[in-house]
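ARCHIVE CARD
SHELF: 3
SLOT: left
DATA:
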Amino acid sequence: MPLLSRGQGRLAIFIAVAVIMAIAGSVVFPSVARAQTDEQREAYRKYLEMKKSGAIEDEPEGPVSIYGEKKTAIPPSSDASDGPSAVPARFGLDIFAHPPSNMTISTEIPVPPGYTLGPGDRLILNLWGSVERSFHLEIDREGKVFIPKAGELVLWGMTLASAKESIEDHIGKIYSDFSMNIVLGKIRSITVYVSGEVARPGAYTVSSLHTMFNILYLAGGPVDRGSLRRIRLIRGNSELREIDLYNLLMKGKGDDVRLESNDVIFVPVAGPLVTVSGEVRRPAVYELKGEESLGSVIDLAGGVTPSAYLDNIEILRYEENRRRVVMNVDISGDNGESLEIKIVDGDRMTIRNVDEHRFNVVFLKGEVKYPGEYEFVSGMRITDLVGREILLPGSFLDVVFISRLLDDETRQVIQVDLRKVLDDPVPAGSDAGSGRYIEGTVVESDIPLQPGDILRIFPVERMRDRANVSVEGEVRQPGVYDHGGDMTVTDLLYMAGGVREKAFLLNAEIARLVKDGNRVSEIIRFDLGEALAGPHSDSDIVLEAGDVVYIRNIPKFREHGKILISGEVFFPGTYVLENEKETLTDLVQRAGGFTSDAFLKGAVFNRSGIVKELEQRNVFDMVEALRVDEFDTSGLSLYPRTSFDVNPVKMTRIIIDLPSIMSGRDETEDIVLKPGDSIYIPGTPSGINVLGAVASSGTIKHVSGKKAFYYIDRAGGYTRRADKGEVRVLKAGGRVIKKRASSHTLEVGDAIIVPGKILHDREWLKVIQAAVSVVAGAFTTIYIVTKL
């Protein structure tokens, strides 16, 4: 008989699936994230397929990863033959890199002579002589102006000069014996249109003084695929002119055009493009106009640099849209006909630099005034390259080195005694010192040099041990000092700033290394006071290289031992110890005793030297060795923990019972003071401090005879997280009471500390997932059993 019926089994499976789906939909975030990632991956795959088939052309707004995140744009990698340099940018586009949001042409400048009048322009007409009148004339839509008493006159299309002649003839029919002038007042506005491959196409309303280049600059200029050499100006449905901006960019000679209303500036797609990189003065991508030769393209790039290697110019070319080929062209010397090679669309030309290797040089390096490269001349010798006048004072001349490149591309090192070479140079024209030498020996002759030789001269400190002496102990500047030939102890002490006040003058020591094969140290003792009293006398010992002078301090020498007493004493402040046996009670008496508000049980006594003692005993290192490393599931260390915390600042306090000390009942409790000690006498506290896991931490008024739980109750009692078994009482003197602390009778100044329980975090998500897995497995088992 089955455990469950078929209907019950199906119901159990449905419930299990519903529980799993509910939990997965609410808390299992990684699964949702993976589903989203799969959708994005599929969308990106479809996008690549559509782009490959040509269904879409525009790139998305910034490169997108398969995870839907923006990525930094990475330029396409070039072929291995292209070299490491980046692909140059289009020439001329940088002039439009920062276009203005608007462009205003000043109307205060003189009007150009060729300015053509049109509707909207205002003229100022001044007459004098037999008639003195002034007229403000505006050209109307029909191109006419109206002159009082003279009638209408058409000025549209005239220049300012021709308009003056026409007006003068027209007014002359009415007036005689007069003079006149005409100036342009308000300049009309026009609307022009920019279309094609520009950054901001559209209609622009500007003054009639604007030119074609002004509007093109205002529109942001051509985009990367736009032409700079075939920009068209269309007026009245016919092409008026084609502009080549290369004339302006390269020669400063712009064939700019003044615009009329309703003009259209059209920027077509760029024509053939060629990339020029390497050793030219202006590497860039250039647009070709008509047939261009190799020489004309090099001229577009500003010509070659002096370092250009002209024997092999590389041209990469696409051949019939099928393959890419390499052409190598030699334009050096008499190969000028190679400059006539035709350059076509898509060509990429690279001019490399000449070999930087220098063939006719020798090198001088090291301890010389003018290290560097020197021209090699046939027959050049060592003394031609280096003389005593260019040597630095610290040059080591006994052995210098010449590194020479041999025919098999290996280097040979030649040792030269430069001192002997400089003392006995080879006379000019002599064959002495022909350069023959025995390998492995030091050359002592002025041998000839060879191209590429490197002559190195090292400092003395590198080639031999530096002679020095040192001093340690009670001097102002202990350390290592250079040794002189007849240097004495007092010379060394003066170099070290002299001896300190606490230096012991009756006895000092010199440690000298005896070079008898075993190199043992010899100790020389001397009277330092006599040496200082008679410098360079018999008592002042002459030092040898390597000597170490030790100056001891006076036994039991010490400076003023200072201690600090503060708080409730009559004369708080800093005191100097009178002797080595002064005690705490002696100090209190010197401070005038305690005030009436002094709380002796709460006295705090600190000794700063305790931390130093612990460090010298390696106590802190031992605590560090007891640390416990915690690791995550991958085995990586999270952070170290110690079994207990150590705060060096808190280690300076010594727990004392000041009332017992001051009573004198037990003299052994009195403390002998040391320099650096500090004593603080607090005032009478307000009550009992209750801190930690209580309803309201604070200070409760002290009631004689009351126990700790009384004050805890006055503070609102324990909170739910209070650990009642770990309550502590901190006595005013620094002692801590744990055993039955809650029932301990408290005194004024005591504090109660109630810690909280340590809560252990549990990863409930993993627990729920594990539980669901178990439940699902159980229901699956039940279902299978019911099917048997």
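SLOT: right
DATA:
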Amino acid sequence: AGLSLSTFTDSSEFINGQLGLDPATENAFFPNFTLPVSSAFGLINLVDANTNEAFGFPQPFASSADTIIDIAGGGFIQGIDTIPTVAGTNIPVLQVFDPAVGLRAFNPGLAVDAFGAIGGDGITQEDNTELLLPEQTRFLFNAGTDYELHENITFFAEGKFAFTEATEQAGIPFNDDIPIALDNPFIPAALQAQIQEIIDLGGSPDLTVSRDVLDSAVFPVEDIERTTIRAAGGFRGTIPGLGFDYEASYTWGRTEVESVNRNARIEDRYFTAIDAVALTAADLPNLDGTLNALRAGEDIQITPDSAQVGDIVCRSELDGSIPPSNLEGSPFSVGNPPVDPDNPEEVRAVSFQFGDGQCAPLNIIGLNAISGTVGGANFAFQDLTDSTILTQQQILLTVSGDSSEFFELPAGPIGFAAGFEWREDASNFTPDGFRRIEDVVANSAVVNASPITTDEFPDTIDVIEGFAEIQVPLLAELPFAELLEVSGSVRVSDYNTIGTTTAWSVNGRYSPHEWITFRGTYNEAVRAPNIGELFGPVVAATIGVGADPCDDDNINNGSVFREQNCLAFVEAGFNSADFLTAFVFGTSGGNPTLLEEEAETFTVGTVFQPGWLFDGLTFVADYYDIEIVNAIDTLTGQEIAEACVDLPSIDNQFCGNVFRNPANGGAISGFTAGQINLASLAVRGVDWSATYDFEMPNYRGWNLGSMRLSAVGTRFLEDTVDGDPTSAEVIAAITDPLEQELSQTSLDIANDELGEFTRPEWIATLGINWELGKFGVNWQGRFESSQNSINIVNEDLVDVVIENGAVVVNPNTGFVDPSQEKTGVGFAQDISFTYDWKEKLGFFGGVNNLTDEDPFLGSLTRNVNPRGRFFFVGVRGTI
């Protein structure tokens, strides 16, 4: 399990040595990976503002063989990476309040870089994965009826109701440098003593706290309720004299998705509640109205008559003071509250009014501290409800039959089907009111209702379609021609969004003998962008601090134009970590200008059933070759930033969607991402299956039942994704033929995803099913061939260089230790049983992941899920 929670990131010679890996490799999977810029305890930063920087994280380790000293379960090398102290004192500038031992120095663990470590007090993956397996409840009801009005007319109707409820983890909000006033009553006594020590030395103490919200009472989760209602009705029957079947129907459906983001942090309230103060005797005569307060750990409401010295209240409720933001001394902090444009060091109230009686005090110092201040938690954390309503209407008319009433070919009648369809899809998204307020919801941008209807972009998808299919039997029951038939189909669609499209296919089947059939298909298909892709709501997205393509670590990882283009935004040697921390927020959403996807598919295969030799054996194999152009996918903030500087000029369609702040060295301050049409996808492979059904031989008069052996799998031959919207233009702009070849070779390797994580060359499922009367046992084995470990792509494992006037592809031996490069073969086994006790009552049970296999390195969900081995039993019946 420890390996499964490992994280892949940059490494060093020292760290590799500690992990027993090749010291020369640049990257590694780290167990117990932590984020040392925050802590579940709350990371306390106490400095003397006269002599210390406002923010002081430890620096990464240098190479050393010094002894690792275990501090609170993590590795800390004394003398190499010690926490700095306030000048003239022994007070560490980074501390945590640990309930087990009290105030102590923060343990950064084995530092990997500014935002990663092994062990220590930083945020762990376990902290951020509380809900590995979302809770889910389902309820489904179907009903239908037929009524024969006439021998050729039947009325039918059906209805469906489905309800699904699921709970999953939402994003964990984080803040750097939350200012804590020195008279804050939640400051522990030991920390108060340190503050006084700095004051006694003539210093000016400055106290801030950085923390992720991991407290149990306000841990962020998302409850999603999906309710679907569908009703359909119509008429079907036979056309007299023709023998054709017809059907005419109308269908209406509605799905309502209610997403409740529980414990969403409201930033202006959060900062206001943190700025708490204890009442003094001088405050009591000046109180007015009712205030939310904390007394002896209990939430109460106080009035001028009931207030007591020591009651803790929000400072803004007491005297109208505006709480400080976290911009003072740290202009590049993450998680900023809304601020006064004229004074960015002060919070601006946008979801309430200062002094309106709503605020309640909140404690953020210490493990699970927020949970102990319930009133403040209820004020600062709100449940946000977003609603999406999807509706669809459909009119469908079909007629099908064959030519038997009129003529037949020597091999039989010609079959056909034709029809007409009208369909309308509509979507409406209504975000919670808090989401429409600027800078107020943590980890989010402003989100508006959608779609926004204009003359250019409608808010529904309307389509009219006509379709026809034909099947022509050419030969049948002849020597070397047991069956020969061809078929074809065509569908013409007229969309109000993308215009007219045409899809068609041709198919053939040939059986020279009854035990073997050959088949093939060629089709050109179209998929129109759906309503979510066109009109999906704008949602929050992020880009990591190390993802800036202009960062000095990334400047040589793009096109030949990247380095020069980046100089238009940043200075040479730019380090984004000097100006940002953790991540930057942007937005992502639908794109009403999307084009349709177009696919060409070719398949050829065989079905083999040699009943004369092995009765019950069936073998099927199909080769497929699929290519999709204009494939719809999401372009991330990182990909947009890279496209901006990788093109020959920064005067392109991408740079306008990346926002940089010159005051912060040109660091990325925001972006706009969303759905786009990518270049192409290409997949080739062979699907195959084999089943063998047979009766077990009797043993001494005992019937041993029947057996089925099965194997189903795929051999992937190609998996190529050309998702770089700049590649063709960039390569065409390169004037040197050898450099152009190098770029094309690099691109081809980058586009090849076969063998990468989740894209193995072989996948197979093996099965043995034994049935004896009412009892059945099933064994299943799931096999995956070895693949690159998570986050390792094919282009990382090679170096494409020019040697002796030619482009050469060499192994990148320094990228990662060979022991961590591949997942290894995955094989998981499940076993289950069924017992039909009575006609309408039975039992079932089994064991999944029988041998308790771990997920692949760096993964929690493949090729087995996080449960490990688990048992299940159940009862099923019919009323």
